[in-house]
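question for whoever is on the cluster today: can someone run the full assembly for these? two chains, 520 residues total. i dont have access anymore since they changed the login thing
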Amino acid sequence: MSLLEESLKQNKFVVTGEVGPPKGINIAPILEEAKHCLKGRVVAVNVTDNQSSVMRIGSLVICQKLLEIGVEPVFQMTCRDRNRLALQSDLLSAAVSGIENVLCLTGDHIILGDHPQAKPVFDLDSVTLLKTVSTLQSGKDLSGSNLDGTPKFFRGAVVAPAAVPLEPQIIKMESKIEAGAQFFQTQAVFDAKTFESFVKQTEKFKVPVLLGIILLKSAAMAKFMNENVAGVSVPDSLIKEMAETKKEERQKKSVEIASRLIRQMKPLCQGIHLMPLGWGHLVPELLTAANL
Amino acid sequence: MIVAEQKPIKQIYEIIKPYKKVLILGCGTCVTVCSAGGEKEVATLASALAIMSKELGEKGEFLQQTIERQCDREFIEPTLPAANSCDAVLSLACGAGVQLVSDMTTVPVVPGLNTKFMGITQEQGVWTENCRGCGDCVLHLTAGICPVSRCSKSLTNGPCGGYNKDGKCEADREMDCGWILIYNRLKERGMLDNLRKIMEPKNWSLASVGKPKKVIREDLRIEPEKIK
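^ ran it for u. tokens below:
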């Protein structure tokens, strides 16, 4: 059983982190970040899968590298770049590598990334990918053939609590649970009331939810997310707070805002998923500030 | 209908440059409706190519003809003598038409259009894609709105997290999220439970991807052994 699964089963409040593989083969910085900023501070670290549809090193191999340095990975898998053969094959490869947590996502559209001419795959979707993981765990593949050796995963999915309308997200969340999702990590949330309303509608599902926290870097970044990142909404009050902060004070302010959000929403969730987006060095300070 | 667009005139000119006498062959069905390859477009294109040819000091000769359909042998048959008397045929049909004419003539057949999609007339001068020929229609479950063609990821189990609060898709801020359209209509009709039914992974072997598809109706065939 993965540490993440075990911790959630024991009702411990968990913190997960995230690293984004680089473009190119220099993995020293990402491993440094994992080792010095995340190891021992978070229970597991997500490794993104060609995040934002930008071509990078694969999630699978970075997960293996994390295992080598004693960091538990969460293998992120999107449906954008692989058909069902490749997805199942990578899941088996992950199991062989000792990867125990998998997070199943649809994936951003290819047009948003750096190879917009590529053919989008989306052979499966996030729900059928979760079902695929469950099917492999039953000892069969999607064609019904028997597996020689059965993998076992702790299966995660995502949900966007600030999406408008919210109902389709909640219905899909139910489908994901039916398909085998055992935990959720959320899109970034910047408003406790929004999250509270989401929790009221979903607590009946009894599936652990890790609240997504992004470190705000500037007012411009917040505005950019409001305009360009679906399902994310940064309130004007936070944008104002960032705008009124001098450049050299921004990291401090960012930590202050994030720790405040964590403290406000901690009673509503079973853990936190931190997406530092390059500011991984602030994670220890943030966790201390948030009393975690 | 099949919606197509005329290739840029310069590209068409480059394609037909090796040939002196060219039959511009229009198609009277889909591409006439979407104003890409009907009688009117044949005439306009013939004039434009003649002018270009004259300006460049070349002696291109452009014949014009438009037939009912280029996807049926019986309509192509009568045009073969004219077609074969030319150096090439410039077909203003969809890709399917270009190929059938090409199978039947002895001279080269080249395309004048880019075939875009199966769609509808949204408004005068605007056509939109509404079907991808996936071979396994689910419109009865999705309130008559196709997730395969109208979700930019062709998802079959509800929206991803990429819809904006104005209901537009992350891939194109001008475009409605297909799944939000489906959600809204199902809700209006009290059929939201449809969204809770998990669809199995789609059988893409039935869709117009991979090997070319064929429909056979034995009851309609006259000489089945001829069509293989």
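summary bc i know u wont read the tokens: The domain at 2-117 of chain B is CATH 3.40.50.2300 (Rossmann fold). The interface with chain A takes residues 152-165, 169-172, 179-180, 183, 187, 192, 195-196, 198-202, 204 of chain B (CB under 8 Å).
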